[in-house]
Each structure stands twice: as C-alpha cells, then as structure tokens.
Fold:
Amino acid sequence: MDKRYFIVLGAFLVQAVTIGSVFAYGVFFTVLESEFGWSRTILSVATSLAFLNMGIFAIAAGRLSDRFGPKGVLIVTGLCTGTAYMLMYFLQAPWQLITIYGVLVGIGLAAHDVVTLSTVARWFPKRRGMMSGIVKVGTALGQMSIPIIAVALIASIGWRGAFVTLGVGAAVILVIAAYLMGMQPEQPAARSNNTIAPLQGYTFKQARQSRSLLILGGMQFFYFGSLITIPTHIVPHSIDNGLSTAAAATVLSTIAASSVVGRLLVGGFIDRVGGKRCFNICLLLLFLSLVSLLVIKNPTHLFVFGVVYGFTHGALFTVVSPTIAEYFGMRAHGAIFGAIVLCGTIFGALMPIVTGLVYDQRNSYDWAFSLLAAMVFVSLLLSLCLASNEKAKVALRAANQSA
Structure:
C-alpha cells in the first residue's frame, strides 16, 4: 500500500480529535455556567485565548515542520491537547479555565492545520485540493461525533469525568497519528505523475513582500472570527431560542455533517478552477448564512442555517492550504500557512469574547452576528482583488527562477 495514505490517515485523525474536542467545549458552556455561575464572556475568553495562541505558535509549528518533519511537532501539540482536557477535571476558578484551555489547547491547535495540510500538500502535488478535502473530513467527523460523546459522558459520569475521558482519548490517538504522519514514502519527484519538486516556490522572505500574501492575510483577518465564534456560541444560542441541549448539540453536528460536503466538493473544485474562485463562492455563502441568523425566528430553521454555514465552514478550512501552494509553492509552505493563520487569529480570536460580552449586555446575539456578517463582506471584497490563477502561476515561475 502507498505509504502516503498512512500520512493522510494520520492527518485525518489529528483533524478529527483536535477540532472535535474544540467543538465539544461548546457543550460544556451551559454546564460550567450552571456549576459556577460564570458569564459567557468569561467562558469565551478561554476560546479566544486558545485561538490567539494557535496563531502565535502556528508560524513556529510550520517552520519546525518544514525543517524537521511533522512527527515531533505533532507529538508535542497532541500531548498538550490531551493534558489540557485532563486538567479541566480540577477546575474551580475562571483563571484556571483561561490558563489551561487558553494556553495548552492553543498550542495543541497550532499544528492541526499548518503541519498536517502542509505535509499532505507536499506528498500530493497534483491532488492537493482533493486530499486536503479528505483530510478535513476528519474535522467534520470529530465535529459530529465528539460533542455527542461529550453529552453522553456528562450525563453518565459528570462533566469532570467527561473532561478526563476526552483528554486521555485525545492524547493516545494524537500520538498515534503523529507517528503515522512521520512516515517517509517515496519522494514525489520520483513519481511519474508527481513531477513537481517539493521545495519549489517562494522563500518566506519573498512571500512577505508579496501583494497576494497581504490579501490572503487580510481575508483571513476578516472572516476567521466567524469560523471560531459560531461553533463556540451556536449551542447556547440554539438553547436560548428554544431547543433542548441535545437538539442544540445536533445543530452543531448538522454543521459538521454539511461541512463534509463542502470539504470534498471544494477540495476537488479548487484543483480545477483555482483558489480565487473558490474563495469567492465560499465567502458569499458564509455572508448569507450569517445574515440568515438575524432573521430566523423558528428554532428548527437553525438546522437549515447549519447546512449552509457548515458547507462553507468546511470549504474555507479546506481551500487555504491548496491556495497557498498555488500562489507560493512548497518551499516555505508551512511558515507561510502559519503567517496567514496568525493574521486570522489576531482579531478573530477576540470575536468569541466580543460575542459573549454583547450577549451578556443585551441578552441577544444579534449585534455580534451583524458584526461578523459585515467582516465577512469585507473579506469577500478582498477576495475579488486577489490575483487570478493564471497570474499566480506566472509569479510562481518567476519566484522559482530567482530563488
């Protein structure tokens, strides 16, 4: 069997466990709110800090992976994720939640996209979009299953036991996945159908001077907050609108299920039409889905929102890595990917806090959802300014000649 597919399996598992666990945190929102009387602003600070730390550590994770390979990086980040959830057993004060979740989970998140998708892009130069989509289906599997598992664990052994169980399971699976990601198949350049050398493309210094990097970073800056905030707040928002806890968790699972379609369709589509067109479609759908949250009155319609939002949520997480390879090549893919992730988390990490604060002040999410929609619209305008697929190829060839 082609060893490259073991790498895909490892990346799939990293995505499933890491992001599924983050989605499960939304299930614990109302439990911790009831147990300690903490506000949603406090609960959101932990999420925001985690994603801010993800961005800060993403560049380092990408550069380390570019230089030394993915295994060691993923072992460290996987153990951070598992340890964080185990330590949540001891929660008594808000500072503990913010420190444990915000720091350790943030470090765990730093490598889940940057390292896995960069590695897959390197080994599948002709099918980067499709293979990225398959890997990101792992995210959807985790989003669908782990929140429901968390609900069952809370009901059977309490929220503290649920955190420990999730943490032990995460640590074991993520370390196994790291070893799978560390396999060394035959070099892509030696394959007849994979003739692109893995280290062609922009250096990190060249990329920093590129207009395309500024635009992609700006796009990420404005839309990424929606991808963090909605999964964090959609469960309590659904409960506020009349759904049971189980039904609200199912809305989250609907988002995850729909994202599978988005990941696979857009993953295959980007290989044919390029990143700019895919971004335009995805950002338009994301904008429309956020606007719909402002007009939905019947809580069952939240499942319709989940379908549309889930599609674009999954697609946007899939499209970034192949687009980076399209515009900048593979020479410094991990570092460039990390820089773009940081652009998103600089402001995007604040949005769950802003959203929680708005809710605590107004007892409604409407103002926060309106702000998210406006930001996504700005990102869509930036996407329209991105260089075409053809111009990107010309610029990449010129960078290869000058490097």
User: Anything to note?
Assistant: DSSP finds 15 helices and no strands in the chain. Confidence is low (pLDDT under 50) at residues 188-198. Residues 128-181 form the longest helix (54 residues).
